[in-house]
Amino acid sequence: MADKNGQRLVRLIDDILDIEKLEAGQLKVHLQQVDLLALVEQALVDNTPYAESFGVKLQHEFVVTQAELELDPHRFSQVLANLISNACKHSPAGATVTIIVRLVKHAGADWWEVAVSDSGDGIPLEFQPRVFERFAQADSSDRRRSGGTGLGLAITRGLVHAMGGEIGFTSVPKAGTEFQVRFPALPKDGRYTKQAKEST
After folding, report:
1. For residues 176 and 195, what is the distance between their CA atoms, to the nearest angstrom?
2. pLDDT digit string (tens) for 138-185?
3. Nearest CA to 181 among 91, 111, 131?
4. Long-range contacts of the stretch 178-181 (C-beta < 8 A, 24+)
5. What is the phi-psi region of residue 72: left when phi exceeds 0, alpha when psi lies from -120 to 50, beta otherwise?
């Protein structure tokens, strides 16, 4: 119990430091051209033990065969870890969490979208406007049950914005939740399109 409490305290301190840096504009991101599908596949490998601790299975669904864009791979892995852990915590044992990669149109340009979908109880309608707030959780008992700090989604939003992306979600109470993060796609010459720059 002491060991678990110590680990939780370390996570809380790390999360507070990250979100303070984000809000002060001091968290550095190092953008580079990456293979999005490879990053998602690695995230599934890295987060499978955590999912298994909740009796949850992870799977991916790639609607495309190739996806290259500019991201900070370390920070993007942190984003996926936060979204996957959140989905696992709110999924019943035996459920599956699916990570989907697809190309979408946004602001007249192509964007890559990564969605993390679960089949849990969904987010209560009255809580949905507060999802990305610091220390916000729909039920305070969830924090005790799962060991969360209540900062994961706030940090995730900050990291996505720092990398020039956007984040959103769709949720139906008792019917699951899907979080989506999206980033401008790169054209064949490896540079952002004018439309993609304006949309960020």
Report:
1. 33
2. 554 454 445 555 678 888 998 999 999 999 999 988 889 999 999 999
3. 111
4. 178/115, 178/116, 178/117, 178/118, 179/83, 179/86, 179/87, 179/115, 179/116, 180/113, 180/114, 180/115, 181/79, 181/83, 181/113, 181/114, 181/115, 181/156
5. beta
Rounded (10°) CA dihedral 70, 72, 78, 83:
-20
Question: pLDDT for 50-85, tens place per residue?
Answer: 999 999 999 999 988 899 999 999 999 999 999 999
Burial degree of 17 (CB within 10 A; 0-12, 13-18, 19+): exposed
Q: Which residue has the tokens 């699951």?
A: 176
